[in-house]
Amino acid sequence: MGLPFLKHRHILLFFVLGVFLAVGVPQQGVTQLATPAAQVQQGVDQYEAGDFQAAIASWQTALAAYQESGNQLNQAIAAENIARAYRRVGNDAEALPYWQQTAALYAQLQRPAKLGRMLTEKAQTYTSLGQYSQAAGLLCAVASDGPGHDQPPCRADSAIGLARQEGDGLGEAAALGSLGEVYRLQGRSEWAEATLSQSLEKARATNQGTYQAAANMSLGSLHLQRARASDRRAAGALQRGDDAAALRQQ
Question: What is the C-alpha to C-alpha distance for residues 80 and 92, in angstroms, rounded to an integer?
Fold first, then answer.
């Protein structure tokens, strides 16, 4: 089950599918822990127990083995788990290369829906690091220089573009929500409202209550941000003795 996106770190983890398992995981036998599949399962157990650093170590061991064997799908699963665990402990910088690796592997495997979802999670990591242009580029398109410009269309190879091509409504809702949050943090309030409203509509269409709540939360933050900006403008007008301008901000 996904988690809501939390506000700037607070509102950002909009789309997380959870930890994946590799296929064929042995269920018993201590000596089998040497196998990469068992290392993946061990990491899952450690993650669920809250021992995230141990989980990362187990998955890194499994990833190295899968790289040696050339198993791209299991490499992607292990790298995805590592990236998510690094985000869970607040180490976004360490998560980034694993998101990059995961996205590259899903591209090679020709799994565009998964690629789109990984681009969304990678973009969320960039946003947590304050790198908004990189995040916007992954989610849709590189934004133009100023908020007065028209909102750019989404590229076909972006997270939103891939979700739309694949009919992945959940992935599209997540990517739109993440992009709307980027726009909000950049101060592009009109773009943010339009994009978050699209996310909310898509979440409703796919019957995803968690994502509806997340989009509403981000829209609420946007409205609060606008109200505070209006209050600041009104206070400035009053200081200048411009009562008419102050009234227009109310």
Answer: 13
